[in-house]
Structures are given as structure tokens and as C-alpha cells.
Amino acid sequence: MTEQNIELWMKQASEVTKQENEKESMTDKNTRKMQHEHKAIGLLRGKTITNIFYTEEEGEYHLIPTIELDNTTVLYVQSDDEGNGAGTLHTNIEGVMSLMPQMYKED
Question: Are residue 97 and residue 57 in the same domain, yes or no?
């Protein structure tokens, strides 16, 4: 094998490995996604919303959109997985209420 052929072979092998890793990564993501969905379905399906309000957390500058269910479960809309700040609740109710925004405490 010439040096040029070896470089081409290594490049192709690297690309195959990269594609296999991406495929495996997507499978892992899909598995995790399905696990979260099934867990949420088990915990939330059939529950009734009893209250919707803003929660004030000490040290936060925003009020957090909050949904309370009939089994005392409370859902907080956060900006990320770590709870760093309030998020915005979006809906598919056009023209009436397309979102429940985060609000500054001063608003």
C-alpha cells in the first residue's frame, strides 16, 4: 500500500467510525427520550389541572409559570434541566393564549 492509499483508507475508516458513533448516539438519545416519555405518561396521564399560577422563588428575578395537578404534583416551567431560571409555557391556543411567559418580579 502506498502512503496515499493508507491515508485514504484511514480517512474512510475514520468516517465509518464517526457514522457508527453518531448512529449509536442517536439510538441512545431515542432510548432516553422514550424512557422519559413513558415515565411522564405514567405519572401524568389522566391527571387534571387544578390550578395555574406564578411561583416566586427566593433569589430568582423571574416568576415561574406553574401548573398544579389533582394529585398535588406541581409542574414548574424552567429554562433548562438545572432549574436556572423561569421558562415560558407555549401552547397551541392561537389568538387567545399562545404562551404563558416568564415574568420579572417587578412586572
Answer: yes
DSSP 86: B
Structural domain boundaries, residue 32? 1-45
What are the grid coordinates assigned to 39, written together? 415515565
Per-residue pLDDT of the chain (107 residues; tens, 9 = 90+): 566 656 666 676 667 667 666 666 767 888 888 998 999 999 899 999 999 999 888 887 888 899 999 998 999 888 888 877 888 888 888 887 788 888 888 75
CB neighbours of 54 closer than 8 A, spacing ≥ 6? 63, 64, 65, 66, 103
Return d(Cα 107, Cα 101) in angstroms, integer. 12
